């Protein structure tokens, strides 16, 4: 009898925000490629181009599957469609099988310091970007039956944090989209949609939340440690990537519309 596997051989995936070698997106891309998928590595600016190309080259060299680097601001609908078209062309593919909406942004800004520019940017990337990429993958990308859409959220969307209310609100909006899209795309197209919600994971973008300017653990980090129910450690990008891998596989065919905390047991309060 053949052993069960999480094989993704023949699948084409886009992972947004995957151009930082130590980030969650890159770890997700590695996990998908390790199991056979061809993966598009996405980054936003010329400043991140070299890092994204290195992520792609390292994955191709290590796992032997083709990668492509795609660039663009996902909060622009035309750019989202361009990213999908570039991916299809690079892999000579008829459809996109997996979309991981990982790209995200958030600043530490309390209520009275939140600006119109910040609101537009946070909701643009976290909400509009997820909408535009999903539209493009389902439409232009002709996502087939059995397709998988994974939104990378955060446990903050259920906690109402005081330091990052706009980011948490944007991610809460993304959580709502997950449930709505699952109901729309499941019965009509056979596509599942889920949210993976990481707890604290040290990356370039999260360090400002987890450390003080002096490099000491932040009060927020101490709070997370006190709430964890698993090992006394932070999460790793690989912890998140392995959860995404499960949801992209055939084994997750009956899992949809779910918000799954991957945080060592930290749960929300709302």
From TrEMBL:
Record-linked Pfam families: adh_short_C2
Keywords linked to the UniProt accession: NADP, Oxidoreductase
GO MF annotations in UniProt: oxidoreductase activity, acting on the CH-OH group of donors, NAD or NADP as acceptor; quinone binding
Gene Ontology annotations of biological process type: fatty acid biosynthetic process
Statement: the UniProt record of this protein carries the keyword NADP: yes
UniProt family annotation: Belongs to the short-chain dehydrogenases/reductases (SDR) family.
Protein name (record): Uncharacterized protein
Organism expressing this protein natively: Neoarthrinium moseri
Organism classification: Eukaryota, Fungi, Dikarya, Ascomycota, Pezizomycotina
């Amino acid at each position: 009898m053949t052993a069960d596997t999480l094989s993704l051989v023949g699948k084409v995936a886009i992972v947004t925000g995957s151009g930082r070698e130590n980030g969650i997106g890159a770890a997700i891309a590695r996990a998908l490629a390790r199991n056979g998928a061809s993966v598009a590595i996405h980054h936003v600016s010329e400043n991140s181009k070299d890092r994204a190309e290195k992520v792609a080259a390292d994955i191709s060299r290590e796992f032997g599957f083709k990668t492509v680097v795609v660039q663009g601001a996902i909060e622009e609908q035309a750019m989202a469609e361009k990213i999908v078209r570039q991916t299809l062309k690079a892999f000579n593919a008829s459809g996109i099988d997996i979309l991981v909406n990982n790209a995200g942004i958030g600043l530490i800004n309390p209520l009275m310091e939140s600006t119109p520019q910040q609101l537009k940017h946070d909701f643009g990337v976290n909400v509009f970007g997820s909408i535009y990429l999903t539209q493009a993958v389902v439409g232009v990308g002709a996502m087939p039956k059995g397709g998988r859409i994974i939104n990378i959220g955060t446990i903050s969307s259920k906690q109402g944090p005081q330091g990052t209310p706009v980011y948490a609100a944007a991610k809460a909006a993304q959580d709502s989209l997950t449930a709505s899209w699952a109901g729309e795309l499941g019965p009509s197209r056979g596509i599942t949609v889920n949210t993976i919600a990481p707890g604290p994971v040290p990356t370039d973008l999260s360090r400002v939340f987890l450390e003080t300017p002096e490099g000491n653990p932040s009060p927020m980090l101490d709070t997370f440690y006190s709430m964890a129910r698993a090992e006394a450690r932070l999460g790793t990008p690989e912890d998140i990537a392995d959860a995404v891998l499960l949801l992209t596989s055939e084994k997750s065919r009956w899992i949809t519309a779910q918000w799954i905390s991957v945080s060592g047991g930290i749960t929300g309060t709302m």
